[in-house]
Amino acid sequence: MTRLFLTLKCPDTIGIIHNVTGCLAENNCNIVESNQWTDSSNNTFYMRVAFDSYTFDYVDLSDLFQSVATKFDMTYRVYEDRKTRVLILVSKSDHCLLDLLYRASNNSLPIDVVAIVSNHESIEPIANQYKVPFFYWPAYHYNRKDQEAAIFNLYQAEYIDLVVLARYMQVLSPDLCDKLGAKKVINVHHSFLPSFSGSQPYQQAWKKGVKLIGATAHYVTSVLDDGPIIEQEVERVDHSYTPEKLIAIGRDIETTVLARAVRYHAEHRIFINDNKTVVFK
Fold first, then answer.
1. What number of CA atoms fall less than 13 Å from residue 202's CA on the CB side?
2. To the nearest whole number, what is the mean pLDDT of the chain?
3. Spatial distance between the Cα atoms of 19 and 14, rounded to a whole number of angstroms
4. Which of 24, 170, 219, 231 is least buried, going by the fewest C-beta atoms within 10 A?
5. In a 10 Å sphere around its CB, with 0-12 CB exposed, 13-18 middle and 19+ buried, how is residue 21 labelled?
6. Are residues 12 and 147 in the same domain?
7. What integer pLDDT is reported at residue 193 of this predicted model?
8. The dihedral of CA 42, 275, 188, 166: what is its sign?
9. What's the Rg (C-alpha) of the chain?
10. What pLDDT score does 238 carry?
11. Which of 12, 39, 52, 225 is catalytic?
12. What's the whole-number mean pLDDT along residues 249-272?
């Protein structure tokens, strides 16, 4: 028995679910989870199916499903059930990194952290603790092309599925974003943008007396912080909260939001819908 995942999107019409499930049943597959939704604004149907195959692997089923896909003008893919190979980029703040490593180590996230890259040496002891290869590659204006070339070479050499920016305080160049492609990089940041940008955003928010703080995880594109949003979370605060307490709460929210986004991606639950996402949680 092999656990597989089918994701698809196509113009909405009658008979899609019947044909999809019928094809799987005819090929000795047992559906264990199914999600579907139609965006009425553009008449697009989205579907994710997790199923057990007793006969075929994901390559064979990809070929067998082609007739259904052609009939409904589908974009589809069949995935095997394996851990997503992840490259983590991180700067000084280590809370998101530690959370991802812990979740990966106890199998609560279906990922394999293949390597960690940082522009700060202080992260190396954490990588050593979890026995993950560590690369200290400083990022300055005069060496950014070489540094990003090294990141991309590592990405290719290790067959990375997903790059996670776990509070990586460097902006990826449009060239690197284009090389990595869509749905290949996830970033997390506080949700004060664009109101409180730059340094010390929590101090800025505290001075303004904000009542909500939060975090956003999104796919990275060549346009800064403009990629499709995957997950967000907020928490109410009040006048009694100091800037330090706001920062602590913000860190907790960032770790939660990033872990959710990585899990949704690793479990093939995310579809791009223009500049938005469809997420089957």
1. 17
2. 94
3. 10
4. 170
5. middle
6. no
7. 65
8. positive
9. 21
10. 94
11. 225
12. 97
Token pair recorded at residue 167 = 């509070």
CA angle 164, 122, 184 (to 5 degrees): 10
Q: Would the pLDDT of 122 be above 70? A: yes
Indicate the pLDDT class of residue 199, thresholds 50, 70 and 90. confident
Q: Are residues 88 and 76 in the same domain?
A: no
**In this structure, are 168 and 234 located in the same domain?**
yes
The token pair at 266 is: 């690793």
Tokens read off for 126: 């954490």
Cα 92 to Cα 120: distance, rounded to the nearest angstrom:
6
Q: Name the residue range of residue 141's domain.
A: 84-279
Return the SS3 of 12: coil
How many other CB atoms are there within 10 angstroms of residue 16's CB atom? 20
Structure tokens belonging to residue 14: 């009658």
Same domain, 88 and 60: no
pTM, two decimals, is 0.95
Q: What is the mean pLDDT of residues 264-273?
A: 98
Q: Give the H or E element holding residue 36.
A: strand 29-39
Buried b (16+ CB within 10 A) or exposed e, 238-269: eeebeeeebbebbbebbbbbbbbbbbbbbbbb
Q: What pLDDT shows up at residue 214?
A: 92
Residue 225 designated active-site: yes
